[in-house]
Amino acid sequence: MSTIYSHLMTCAADQKWGGQACEDCAGGSFSAGGTATTTSCITCNADKYWNGQACEACPAGAVGAGDGTLCTCAANQKWGGSACEDCAGGSFSAGGAATMTSCTTCNADEYWNGQECTACPGDSTGTGDGTLCTCA
Length: 136
Prior knowledge:
The protein is mainly beta. It has strands at residues 10-11, 15-17, 22-24, 34-35, 48-50, 55-57, 63-64, 71-73, 77-79, 84-86, 91-92, 96-97, 104-105, 110-112, 117-119, 125-126, 133-134.
């Protein structure tokens, strides 16, 4: 029978040492990996995200997605690199992951439906700012 020297073992990110081998962390929990002395995984609070080494507070204006994986900006905001920023007038976003770094501008014959630009129905025309369509 061979002896496993746990002090020489290295577990990958999002794994922990289970006594005999590395084990995956349960969904929604994390580990930086490293030496086999890491025997537990970390769960981030709802207002935090896992940055690869530790749980970190979501930046100003962003909220945690609830699973510790990322922070999200609200609708009609984009990620500005360190905080959520409002979209400029006439541009929109559905909100979501802090990796969304731009807002969408609708064409003159479209309106923003909360998720995407949509063509104005029938013979109606857009107001030009993406907010609504008017009847002809």
